Queue: 2 jobs
Job 1
Amino acid sequence: MSQPQIFRTVADMRAAVALWRGQGDKIALIPTMGALHAGHLSLVKFARENGFVRAIVTIFVNPTQFAANEDFGAYPRTFAADVDKLASIGVDGCFAPPPEEMYPPGFCTKVAPGGPALAGLEDRFRPDHFAGVAQVVAKLLNQAQADAACFGEKDFQQLAVIRRMARDLDIPTQIFGVPTMREADGLAMSSRNVYLSAEERRQAVLLSQVLQETAKAMRAGEDIPGLCAAAAQKIGAGGFALDYFEARHAESLAPVAALADGPIRLLVAARLGRTRLIDNLAV
Ligand code: AMP
C-alpha cells in the first residue's frame, strides 16, 4: 500500500505532473467529490488499462454546483477513508484543495454550457447545476494539465456536457466515459446511496430493473413513448417521486421517437424519500 501524495495547491499538483511527464509517464485525472466507492475506483482502473500509468484523483465538494436547497452541507465527507481506498489501489496523487484555492477572493468567472446542458433532463430540476460542474471541471482540467480525464457514464448528461465543453474551449485533455459500476442487485453505486434507509435501499433496485426491462422491450421494437410512460408508472408505483424517464439520442441527448433515431440511451431521475437517484442505460 503506497500512500498517494496529497496536493493542497495547484502549484504542488502541477509540479508532480511535470515530474511524471518528464519521466515519460501518461497522466489521468479523475475528478470526484469524495465519499469514494468502487465506482470511483473503477475510473482509476480504466485509466490504468488505457495506458495512463499515473492517476490523480481530485476530491472537492464543489459548492457552485449545488443549489441552496440541495445537500451541499450534508454531502458525505470521508477524507481519511477515501485516502485509504486510494492507497489500496496505488493511486499516485490526490488533489484536495481548500475552497479558497479553487475560489479565491475576487473569483467571478462563470462558464455557461449550452447544448447537452440544456437537454431538458437534469437541467429542468437543477437549473444552475451544469454551470457549476462546467466551471469546476474546466478549472480542474486546466489546473492539472493531465493527458486524460475520466468521468462516469453514471452521470450521463454531465459526461456529454464535459465532452462538449472540452471540445468547444479547446481543452487538450482527452475525455473518457467509463461504464457504471453497480451493486450486486443492479443499483448504480453513488455516494448518495448512504442516505437511503434499509427499506429505501430495498426499493431502490427498481430503477435499474425498469431500465433493463424497458431497454429490452425497446430493442424488440415496442413503441417508445408507450414504454417510457409505462416505466414512469412502474417507478411511481414503487414508491418513487419521478422527475423524468426519457429515451434520448446517446450523443446529442435529443428526444427520439423510433429505434432508427438511435443509438438510444434511457435516462431516469427519481426521488426516494429525501434521496434523489439518477441512472441510465444503453438501449
Ligand atoms: P461524484 O463524486 O459523484 O461527483 O463522481 C465522480 C466521478 O465518478 C464522476 O465522473 C461520476 O460519473 C463517477 N461515478 C460516480 N458513480 C459511479 C459509478 N457507479 N460507476 C462509475 N462511475 C461513477
Job 2
Amino acid sequence: MTILVTGGAGFIGSNFVLDWLGACDEPVVNLDKLTYAGNVHNLAPLAGDQRHIFVQGDIGDAHLVGALLAQHQPRAVLNFAAESHVDRSILGPGEFIQTNIVGTFQLLEQVRAYWAALDAAAKTAFRLLHVSTDEVYGSLSASDPAFTETHRYEPNSPYSASKAASDHLVRAYHHTYGLPVLTTNCSNNYGPLHFPEKLIPLMIVNAQAGKPLPVYGDGQQIRDWLYVKDHCSAIRAVLASGRLGETYNIGGWNEKPNLDIVHTVCDLLDELKPRADRQSYRSQISYVTDRPGHDRRYAIDARKIEQELGWKPAETFETGIRKTVQWYLDNPDWVAQVQSGAYRDWVAMQYAQA
Ligand code: NAD
Ligand code: DAU
C-alpha cells in the first residue's frame, strides 16, 4: 500500500508526511514542484528513508502524474499542492489559476483514468482527498454563525476563487464519473515549518530581526486558528473514515483578531527571548495599508467532523502558539535558509507602499 501526496514539501504537506511516516510504515510518494514555498529541508528527517519517495514535478504535468500513478499504484492521492498566499494572489493571480485550477483539473484527469482501470476491490478502496480552505465561503460579519459545510461559496480573493474552482471540479468528478473523493475545508493553520510570509511566522521572524510588525488596517480581522498537527490528524481521520463525496470543515474553535495574535507572539517572545533593551516587542507593531478586499472574519463550525469521525484538536491555541514560537527560536538555521533572495524581493515589493 502506498499513498501519493502532492505539495508535500510545503508547510502543511511536509508536516503531514512527517506525521504520517512517524505513525505508520505505509510509503509516501511526494510530488512537489518546489516553488518558492516548497522546501526539501522540511523533509530532512526523512533523508535515506526508503518509505519516502520525493519527486520534483508539477501536478499539471499529465505525463508525469500518469507515470507516477502507474508505477506506484497508490491506494489514495492527497492533494495539498497549491499557490496558497492571498497577498501574492492579489499581486499576480496567474500562477493561482494555473496550479489551483488547471493543475487540479489535470490531476483529476490522471487520477480518473488510473482509478477507472483498477480492479474492483482497488477501485472501491481508492480515495482522492482534496485539501481546501475555509476562504471559499467568503467573509462573515461579527454576528454570523460559523461556516458549515452547506454555507454558500462566496470567494473574495483570486486565491480563494481559485480554490473554490478546484473544489467544484473535485465535486463534479464525483458526481459525474463516480470518482471517490473527499474534500476538507480548513481554517488558518500555524505551527512549525510555516513559511514566514504568513502572519504568525512573519511576526516571529520580524520581531527578532528588530523589524516592524506590519498589521493590516485596524488589525481587527478575525481568523480561526488551528495547530498544523491537528489539521494533519483531521486529514488522516477523513481519509480513513470520511463518507465519499462529502466535505468536512476542519477548525479548532479559536477565533482571534489579528492584533491579539500579534500581541500574543510579542508577549511570548518577551518571555522566551527578551529584547536587549527590555522593551516589549509590541513596540515594533506598525499599522500598514489594508489588504485589498480583506475578508473581515472566518469561523469554522467543526461539528460534522467531530460528530461523524470523532476528531477533535489536541492543542489549544495557548499550547500551540507557545510550541510554535519555541520552534522558531530553536530553528534559526531553517529561518535563515528560507529567507532566500526571492523571499527578500517579495517582502520588499509587498511592504513597499505600507
Ligand atoms: P504552501 O504554500 O506552504 O505549500 C504549497 C506546496 O505546494 C509547496 O511545497 C509548493 O512547492 C507546492 N506546489 C505549488 N504548486 C505546485 C504544482 N503546480 N505542482 C506540485 N506542487 C506544487 O501551502 P500550505 O499552507 O502548506 O497549504 C497546503 C494546502 O492546504 C493548500 O491547498 C492550501 O490551499 C490549503 N490550506 C492551507 C491553509 C493554511 O492556513 N496554510 C488552511 C487551509 C487550507
Ligand atoms: O483561512 C485559511 C487560509 O489561511 C489559507 O487558505 C491560506 O492558504 C493561508 O495563507 C491563510 O490565509 P490568510 O490570508 O488568512 O493568512 P495570512 O497569514 O496571510 O494572514 C492572516 C491575517 O493576518 C489576515 O487577516 C491578514 C493579516 N496580515 C497578514 C500579513 C502577512 C497582517 O495583518 N499583516 C501581515 O503582514
